[in-house]
Amino acid sequence: MGGPDTIIAVSTPRGSGGVGLVRLSGPRALAVAQQVFDGRPPLGRHPRQVTYGRVVDDDGRPVDTALAWYLAAPDTYTSEDIVELSTHGSNAVLDLVIERGICHGARLAEPGEFTRRAFLNGRLDLMQAEAVADLVHSQSVSGLRAAYGVLEGGLSVRVRRLREDLVDARARLESLLDFSEDVTSAELGDIDRLMARVEYEAASLVDSFRGARARLDGFTVVLAGRPNAGKSTLLNALLGEDRAIVTDVPGTTRDWLEGRVMWSGESVRLIDTAGLHDTGDATEQAAMESTRQQMARADLVANIVDGADDRDAEELNCDTGDPLPQIIVLTKADLPSRASTAPGVETETVQVSALTGRGLGELRKAILRHVSPQTPDQTGAAPLRERHRAALAATAEATRHARRLLAEDTPEIAADELLRAAAHVDDLLGESQDEAVLDRIFAEFCVGK
């Protein structure tokens, strides 16, 4: 892939629609398109201008009207000649364009091959290329902003700064090694401060990963609590539809149910779970184990408490022993309230009535306040993939080790650790190309992107 051949693919989703788009890239993109598209004036006479014409079959007979434009290399997405044909969204028309394009010398593109060529030709670094897929699959407006920011280079700027500092620190260290007898503590201190900055920046990026990734995929909020506390009724109210079965019989929900909502540009995945209580029933125990697993993975647990019950609300705990991020939701606010929070519980509490809608707006705001604090994650300067997080964590660790080695008066080994840290940064940017890694990354893309 990325060679001198010309590729072709449909870039719009398959199925009948108003518009379909076919993209070609490569040295023969214009010549191939001219066999498929009869334009007036001829396609290519005026680069970067839209041409009106017709899609023609093997006999030169028109089968559809279309628009086309020719973009000359190197100032294109792939740095190659590109032609895009906009037809009606008929599978028959799109298939005809693809078949005729292949007959005249193009080949069908592999998944993500257009973006892979953009990366290989230096238009994007690897993180920016990955952001193309992240933008396409984003579940929220804030996720779009995060992915677009990475695509525009927000994360790349910070990562390249890490590399510059690592190269600078290693160059200074190796220069001092040549004159080891004349090294001063001030010079060593300057190098250590430079490495400390790298360690801090890399670790800060690692810390921003979870929030940034959650914005992309959507935040997960688990509704948990005792049986018959109103979890399923609340789920239906928040979704605005009857997703969960609701009865007066405790334990109606045995398996978890989910639904997605969009609140203030954030995608939130709400999960209704089986009630937590003491029981010897094996089926209910299995259902509660599933609930605990969902709680452990959640960005926030909504601890649902029957507000008409006289039992105090207590914080929920996870089997792992780790504190759960949670808020307490007192339901049935339309009935006389008896429940309150137990002494010593300082968790935020919201009162709601799924029946009347009272408090639902406040609950939405409380959920967003907890899962989506206003942080720099949204600027596109945070890692969005596990690959990014792992490489940045390794960079921080190697730099931390180098600082320790320098403090122990082993600067030669410290310099090697800095080289290892820089290699992790190069992996992030795609400077060291591993075909297997590239294959795995671009396999996630759709054909035509």
Verbal overview:
- By secondary structure, this protein is α/β, with parallel strands linked by helices.
- The mean pLDDT is 86.
- 41% of the residues are buried.
- The chain folds into three domains: 7-125, Gyrase A, domain 2; 151-208 and 382-429, tRNA modification GTPase MnmE domain 2 (Four Helix Bundle (Hemerythrin (Met), subunit A), Up-down Bundle); 219-374, Rossmann fold, CATH 3.40.50.
- Helix content is 43%, strand content 18%.
- It has 14 helices and 13 strands.
- The two termini are 14 Å apart.
- A hairpin with a 2-residue loop joins strand 9 and strand 10 (266-272).
- The protein has a seven-stranded mixed sheet.
Task: Please outline the helices and strands.
Layout: E1 7-10, E2 17-25, H1 29-36, E3 37-39, E4 51-56, E5 62-71, E6 82-89, H2 91-103, E7 107-108, H3 113-120, H4 126-137, H5 141-151, H6 154-177, H7 185-207, H8 209-217, E8 219-225, H9 231-239, E9 257-263, E10 266-272, H10 282-297, E11 300-306, E12 326-331, E13 349-351, H11 360-371, H12 386-407, H13 411-429, H14 435-442
Parallel strand pairs: 1-7, 8-10, 8-11, 11-12, 12-13
Antiparallel strand pairs: 1-2, 2-6, 3-4, 4-5, 5-6, 9-10
What would you call the shape?
flat
Q: How many structural domains? A: 3
The spatial strand order of the largest sheet comes to 3-4-5-6-2-1-7
Radius of gyration, whole Å: 29 Å
The number of strands is 13
Structural class: alpha/beta
Query: In percent, how much strand structure appears in the residues?
Result: 15-25%
The CATH C-level name of the largest domain is: Alpha Beta
